[in-house]
Amino acid sequence: MFTWLINKGKELLYKMGLISGIKKVTDNRKVAIDEESYKQIDIWKAIYSGHFSEWHDLKYQTVEGQKQRRMASLNMAKVVTQEMSSLIFNEKCSINISDEALFDNIKNVLDDNNFYREFQRYLEYMLSLGGMVTKVYYNQGIKLSFVTADCFVPVSWDNNKVTEGVFINESTKAGKYYTLLEWHLIEQTNEGPQHVIKNELYVSRNKGELGVRTGLKELYENLEDEVRIKNLSRPTFVYFKPNTANNFDLYSPLGISMYGNSLDVLKSLDIAFDSFQREFVLGKKRIIVPASAIKHVIDPETGMSHRYFDATDEVYEAMKIEGDQRIHDISVELRVEEHTAAINALLNYLSMQTGFSTGAFSFDGQGVKTATEVVSENSKTFKTKQSHETILEDCLRDLVDVIVDIAVLYDVFKTTEDYEVTVTFDDSIAEDQAAEINKQILLVTNGLTSKIKALMKIHGISEEEAEQLLKQIIEENRMAMPENVDFFNLEGNPEQEQTNNGGE
Fold first, then answer.
1. Do 470 and 454 form a contact (C-beta atoms < 8 A)?
2. Domain residue spans in the chain?
3. Helix (H, G, I), strand (E, B) or coil at 297
4. pTM of structure
5. Is the Cβ–Cβ distance between 155 and 165 less than 8 Å?
6. Strands (E), 392-444
7. 346, exposed or middle or buried, with CB in 10 Å at 0-12, 13-18, 19+?
8. What is the rounded distance in angstroms from the CA atom of residue 420 to the CA atom of residue 120?
9. Is 231 helix (H, G, I), strand (E, B) or coil?
């Protein structure tokens, strides 16, 4: 009761202006992240949505005074992040675990949470905003929650891996703006490190302000102020970010947007595209006719009113012309080719800045087209894709480890400490599967690689899984018809092959 009265009193004093509230989460003394980082995220988010007020809300002068309009946008921020996210992670990607029972359990968790579908969507948000978080928790089963970069603030980090952070959840009720801060912290105790979750609720009368702290019961009946989890020393979330160095804040653990250094080019593209569209508005056909030509003429016989020209046709412009009363066609030539060339030049520059090969995007006057041809392994697009995959694979391994920790904590399923996680990405943009198989067969037959390594490359599996698969293939090959061709020379000496692999 007393807590409720205190919270209501603080809220009343805040409304009266007698006490000040916290404006932003970054004002909290526990947060070491600079506010400028989140101002950048807000800019990237607005550009990704296709409307950044500073760019797209235009004011211009006419003979009737100042007018306003919204600039047309190509929204290339959405295009480049959607294209790269689909290249990195799609339905052909898979997460493999060496232990079969654990693999089945992890697969069930991922499938129950629609992981593959949701992860590709949030991967696009990650490339746009510079990061995203996957949080693992238990609620009648293991659940995965995806959070965008603007709703998460790192508190501490080690070797550029975020170990503590706060999640931000905003809601509105009865004209008040509530913000729930969910702190995930690691505290050292006499019993060892503990994972601590602290919940704080703030209320404000102004949108965008944190306001003053109030009781959780005001909005969340069943939420506790603090939860301590023993025997869990790692965070229950994984922070993902693009594999691009943060040149805005060299010491920040936050990532940066894929187009964070391309804002000038994106703005120029929107200006050029807007001009291209306005070319058809401002350059439309116009015919100047004498004002006298559009006056009413009364037919003396019928008494009906006539005009020489259709007054509703916007092609005609009436002007008072002295002397020469001829009709003038003042249609201007449209600069379609010049605009198209300018937009394509800017698209090539954007491709270079965002890690795509030159020519990855092109404009033909109807819209932006994406190159669909197979690219070489040496192309910039493929190298950028692999660069992002490197850091994503590491984060996905961490995610599997967190799921295993939660499963052990709540006794969801049995696990093992001896397992290996591999992530198979779709590299078909650089080489089709048939070509890869033929390449591995050629390497094996010429003694340039092992059968184990070839199977790992072709199927995207771990070494242990490849050894099991090789044994299975050998058994099936022994039962095959004599005329069948042994491409991998499997009837050789498998024991010797495994001995050789052990020495690699």
1. no
2. 1-30+143-224, 263-367, 432-504
3. strand
4. 0.74
5. yes
6. 421-424
7. buried
8. 23
9. coil
